[in-house]
Write a structure and sequence with these properties.
Layout: E1 4-8, H1 12-24, E2 28-32, H2 35-44, E3 49-53, E4 55-56, E5 59-60, H3 61-71, E6 76-81, H4 86-94, E7 99-102, H5 107-123, E8 126-129, E9 132-135, E10 140-143, E11 146-147, H6 152-163, E12 169-170, H7 171-179, H8 188-198, E13 203-206, E14 210-213
Parallel strand pairs: 1-2, 1-3, 3-6, 6-7
Antiparallel strand pairs: 4-5, 8-9, 9-10, 10-11, 12-14, 13-14
Helix pairs in contact: 1-5, 6-7, 6-8
Amino acid sequence: MKNKVYILEDDASICGLIRVALEMNGIAFESFSCCADFLEALKKEEPDVALLDVMLPDGNGFDVLRQVKAEYPAVSCIMLSALGKEEDKVNGLNLGADDYVSKPFSVLELTARINAALRRKRQNSVLTAGDLTLNYDSMTISLKGEYLDLNRKEYELLKYFIENAGKVLKRETLLTEIWGYESGETRTLDNHVARLRKLGISIETIFGVGYKLNV
């Protein structure tokens, strides 16, 4: 696994301590002080772990958590919050947080929790959806045990389908996530879906909306 952490924290002193700890442990990271920059970075690359503050200048960390888990379910999320009451922790965990650390916290403890999340990621580096198996480590996808010969965009598209198996995905979402198109019509998506179907993958057309991977 790539072992990369995204930090969403607007307190420069806290962010600095976390960055030093990650550097000492050889863990790559990027830090963001606002929700907008963090979410924009997610479109380009998914980290293994995201550290999410709750009270941010342009939003709420719980809302960010909800969006991350809906759109990037493979990202492990650890909440960092001064809201340390039991109901706050329960709320975060119910929204999909993988861990919840109250401020003030021990940097050593936080590092241990990050390493634990990374270990869980390594142990769960394979995702299945029906007869499809996605291996994050080798960046391969197999169908009924047979590896598929995919080019880069075919792999990225099918990976996104597998991570969102059973969900109806809008054309605009797929074009933005895979090709970075924010607007405009293109046959690129349709051609790639047609190619995946020829490989025996069941992708349903939802007319007027987009596509869905059937599992």
